[in-house]
Amino acid sequence: MPQPVEMLHQQVASTPHAGNVNRSLMAESPLPTPSSSKESRPAKLLEKEEETEPKLLPRRLAIIVTPISTEDPYQGVFLRRLANTIRLVPPPLLWIVVEGQSDSDEVSEVLRKTGIMYRHLVFKENFTDPEAELDHERNVALRHIEQHRLSGIVHFAALSNVYDLGFFDELRQIEVFGTWPMALLSANRNKVTIEGPVCDSSQVIGWHLKRTNSQTDSRPPIHISSFGFNSSILWDPERWGRPSSTQQTSQNSIKFVKQVALEDETKLKGIPPEDCSKIMLWRLNLPVSKSSSGHRIHGRY
């Protein structure tokens, strides 16, 4: 199976430690000079003050994965819109963008100008089914996370997603698996559909289910953008009571993660934990259209 070509970029603005992914990408301000009054205090008094000060825990790395369909003519527009949201999220954050090989360098140009720390992964396989292509792109990203042992909380952000910025603060609170409700907005309908969990505080007690003709699958459907997880489940599954990854798991990582999340719902926590019914993520259901090649394309990523 051909390996994806990795195009890795890390933009840093005036940051002296570019190799540290957990540092801010903004230019660092000079540290204030200690006042003479503090310098004159006895050493024991200063030590006592330091002991009483609360220790701030560092933010977890948010790993945002965005697959891009090669048949989407609006990818540049929506990529810029999503970038404008992500750049407002406090660091540390890593944006992994995956796309098929093409003659256009539009995605690379957009990413270079964002000021966001990112990795741009490109693969050579061709797909006729847009959904199969997007699943492949997600697996490419997860294999990259696994191989490089990137430690953080993973979220799949489609180009059609719209966020409340507070969502990313809640995302970083996930220990193992987290899930949340998502509102689906359609351009052609005057209604909003809710997908995702029904919770009692942070405990998942049910699911908002769409009407389907087939009721053969007993497991509730979970949308790819309505859950997040600790990345160590990919490269250190034994830590979470799972057997080591197999070849089948590495070939379809996204299926493995979904399966683990739904098998052990005790580790699946609703967010925000105080009110899991709060909507912090919306998905735009764009009208179906046809590309120049005749493929049907839409915004349901």
Compute the number of helices: 9
The major beta sheet can be summarized as:
8 strands, mixed
Per the CATH scheme, the topology name is Spore Coat Polysaccharide Biosynthesis Protein SpsA, Chain A
| Rg (C-alpha, Å) | 21 Å
What strand line-up does the widest sheet have? 1-4-3-2-5-11-7-12
CATH architecture classification? Alpha-Beta Complex
SSE order: EHHEHEHEHEEHEEEEEHHHEEEE
How would you classify the quaternary structure? single chain
The N- and C-terminal alpha carbons lie at a distance of 24 Å
Helix content: 25-40%
EC number: 2.4.-.-
Biased composition (Basic and acidic residues): 38-47
Keywords: Cell wall biogenesis/degradation, Glycoprotein, Glycosyltransferase, Golgi apparatus, Membrane, Signal-anchor, Transferase, Transmembrane, Transmembrane helix
GO cellular component, one term: Golgi membrane
Summarize the structure.
With 301 residues, the protein is of the alpha/beta class. It has helices at residues 36-39, 43-52, 75-86, 106-112, 130-148, 166-171, 232-235, 247-251, 253-263, and strands at residues 5-9, 62-67, 93-100, 118-123, 153-156, 161-163, 177-179, 182-186, 192-200, 203-208, 227-230, 268-270, 281-285, 289-290, 296-297.
